[in-house]
């Protein structure tokens, strides 16, 4: 079900292109976890450590669909990076408590991405049972290393559009923004940034607009 509080129309362009970068990548698992587009704010707290490490305030993150769900070349979401906080601040902030996972809750709740914080006394990582846990609920060392090993940053986007399975096809003229494989691209010339900006400005809807693509592929 679409979260109606996050579904609104705006005509403001995402941002100016002079002092920003676009970070484009393919969403390997589009489950509402990374990114997490629920409760009126889009967050990238897990996976994509390079983007989380190097993105700056005002940058735009573009996530495109994967071939396995037949969404290659479609835009799954974009978000402007409006704020960058640490895992500890993310966990402690009351406004983000709804993004803590509830594994016996709805699909939206089970894919909460607010899962990491440090123990106040030891400094060791503490985690909540989540999509990045092992099947038995235990912690996953590999996911912990990937999510926290290179950066402590969580990207927050208040200006965003998340279509999931309903994402629009990226025009052929902008195909250079569609990444092949699991890496990411961010070094686009100014004329290409302007071209992508022009197209994004035609997509006036904002918020959570459609279900994650992988929800239709797996049993929820």
Largest sheet: 7 strands, mixed
Low-confidence stretches: 1-15
Radius of gyration: 17 Å
Shape: globular
N-C termini distance: 13 Å
Order of helices and strands: EEEHEEEHHEEHEEEHE
- Tell me the domain tally: 1
In DSSP terms (H or I, runs of 4 or more residues), the helix count works out at: 5
- Spatial strand arrangement across the major sheet: 1-12-10-5-4-2-11
Beta strand count: 12
The share of residues in extended strands comes to: 15-25%
Describe the fold and architecture.
- The longest helix has 11 residues.
- The N terminus is likely disordered.
- This protein has one domain.
- 16% of the residues lie in helices and 20% in strands.
- It contains 5 helices and 12 strands.
- The strands form 3 sheets. Strands 1-12-10-5-4-2-11 form a 7-stranded mixed sheet, with no helix packed on it. The protein has a 3-stranded antiparallel sheet with strand order 3-9-6. Strands 7-8 form a two-stranded antiparallel ribbon.
- The chain has 220 residues and is of the alpha+beta class.
Provide the descriptors you would attach to this structure in a database record.
220 residues, alpha+beta, 7-stranded mixed sheet, 3-stranded antiparallel sheet, 12 strands, 20% strand, globular, disordered N terminus
Short description:
The protein has 220 residues and is α+β, with helices and mostly antiparallel strands. It contains five helices and twelve strands.
Give the topology.
Layout lengths: L7 E2 L12 E5 L15 E3 L4 H6 L5 E5 L10 E6 L2 E4 H6 L14 H4 L5 E3 L6 E3 L13 H8 L4 E5 L2 E3 L21 E2 L4 H11 L4 E4 L12
Parallel strand pairs: 2-4, 10-12
Antiparallel strand pairs: 1-12, 2-11, 3-9, 4-5, 5-10, 6-9, 7-8
């Amino acid at each position: 079900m679409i979260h109606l509080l996050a579904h609104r129309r705006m005509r403001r362009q995402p941002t100016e292109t002079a002092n920003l970068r676009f970070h484009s990548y393919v969403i390997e698992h589009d489950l509402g976890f990374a990114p997490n587009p629920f409760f009126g704010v889009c967050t990238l707290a897990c996976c994509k450590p390079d983007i989380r490490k190097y993105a700056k305030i005002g940058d735009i993150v573009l996530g495109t669909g994967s071939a396995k769900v037949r969404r290659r070349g479609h835009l799954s979401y974009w978000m402007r990076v409006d704020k960058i906080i640490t895992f500890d601040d993310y966990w402690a902030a009351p406004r983000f408590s709804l993004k803590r996972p509830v594994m016996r809750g709805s699909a939206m709740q089970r894919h909460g991405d607010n899962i990491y914080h440090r123990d106040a006394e030891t400094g060791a990582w503490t985690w909540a049972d989540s999509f990045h846990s092992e099947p038995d609920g235990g912690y996953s060392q590999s996911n912990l290393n990937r999510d926290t090993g290179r950066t402590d940053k969580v990207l927050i986007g208040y200006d965003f559009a998340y279509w999931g399975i309903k994402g629009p096809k990226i025009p052929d003229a902008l195909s250079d923004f569609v990444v092949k494989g699991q890496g990411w691209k961010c070094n686009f010339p100014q004329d290409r940034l302007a071209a992508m900006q022009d197209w994004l400005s035609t997509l006036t809807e904002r918020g959570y607009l459609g279900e994650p693509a992988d929800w239709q592929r797996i049993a929820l």
